[in-house]
Design a protein that fits this description.
Helix content: 25-40%
Order of helices and strands: EHEHHHEHEHEHEHEHEEHHEEH
Largest sheet: 8 strands, parallel, barrel
């Protein structure tokens, strides 16, 4: 069945807890998504104490660097995370934010690389990933077309397999920021698989994206939108994700089965039930000249002149008396 590729991002929703992270994997395995996505942060390789908070949300981290340190897992722990994903039938996808993270992910055996919006112009990191030969999913949230053109040219020259997601780096994204028009623009401009990276916290935005051609859907997952963390309010709950996959598959199936309105043979029998025949609405004598106000249409079709032919009946004389609510047939009329 043709359907979108659904990516549920756990991201930082685990809050640095392996237990919470693994519980997300188990929960998402029940929703029908294809993959779970993580972010691999190795603080000393990707950040510094000078990095400011995007949003000052944390009560326990003095700096953004401290936050990334708290979000870290060891290489062996990452291997167990990937193994758990495989055991429950989910693809393991990860966004690296350093070349060292790429080395780790290659040792782990990541299936796809997801490039976050802030890394689109990081050609050093992209070159490292291109060398792995793995497919790349590129988020375009912070990028202009000028920047995207350069990165796409770089990837095409390297013969990399990649797709691009329309994404708005705003949390939560408002309807006027969704940028659905960009989906078609990306497809026409780059001729690659396209998708929608959602931060709206709504099922509706994702369903609309499918209807507009998104082949990949990515969205943040959270147990409850009231939880602590920078992405909780921009995420979908486990139950919402389950509903999204169900509805999304239904819409996708509909899109891949176009209806030919000229082929309605299958409705022949039911049409005869619902369509109508002409009748008269009062007792009418022989030689009465039929007017529009004498006529009614009654189910089913085939017991009188078709209701569609009423104009040919108006002005005709009756060949005999006819009772109210009786069907009107050709033999009832004087030619």
């Amino acid at each position: 069945m043709n359907k979108p590729y659904y990516i549920a991002e756990i991201g930082q929703a685990h809050e640095g807890s392996l237990g919470i992270l693994h519980s997300y994997i188990d929960a998402l395995a029940t929703t029908g998504v294809d993959a779970v996505k993580f972010q691999m942060h190795i603080a000393t390789a990707e950040s510094s104490v000078y990095e400011p908070f995007r949003v000052k949300f944390s009560y326990e981290d003095a700096t953004r660097f401290d936050y990334w340190k708290r979000m870290e897992f060891k290489l062996d722990q990452w291997k167990e995370i990937k193994k758990h994903c495989e055991e429950v039938g989910l693809d393991f996808i990860c966004s690296p934010f350093s070349n060292l993270a790429v080395d780790w992910l290659e040792e782990i055996g990541v299936k796809y690389y997801k490039i976050g919006s802030g890394e689109v112009t990081n050609l050093l990191l992209l070159q490292k990933i291109v060398q792995t030969g793995k497919p790349i999913i590129l988020s375009s949230g912070m990028s202009s077309y000028e920047e995207l053109d350069k990165t796409v040219a770089f990837l095409k020259e390297a013969k990399a397999e990649f797709s691009i997601l329309q994404c708005t780096t705003s949390y939560p994204t408002q309807p006027e920021q969704y940028g659905f028009n960009v989906l078609r623009e990306l497809k026409e401009r780059y001729q690659v698989k396209i998708g929608f990276s959602d931060h709206s916290s709504t099922i509706a935005a994702n369903i609309a994206a499918i209807a507009l051609g998104a082949e990949i859907l990515e969205f943040h997952a959270v147990f409850d939108k009231r939880m602590f963390g920078p992405d909780a309010k921009s995420s979908l709950t486990i139950d919402e994700i389950k509903q999204l996959v169900q509805d999304g598959n239904m819409i996708s199936k509909a899109l891949h089965h176009p209806v030919d309105k000229n082929k309605n043979e299958a409705f022949f029998e039911i049409k005869n039930i619902f369509e109508k025949s002409l009748a008269v609405n009062k007792n009418l004598p022989k030689d009465h000249i039929i007017t529009f106000h004498d006529l009614e249409s009654k189910k089913p079709k085939g017991y009188g002149i078709d209701a569609t032919e009423y104009q040919k009946v108006v002005g005709k004389k009756l060949a005999k008396d006819i009772s109210a609510w009786q069907f009107l047939n050709e033999e009832d009329l004087i030619p």
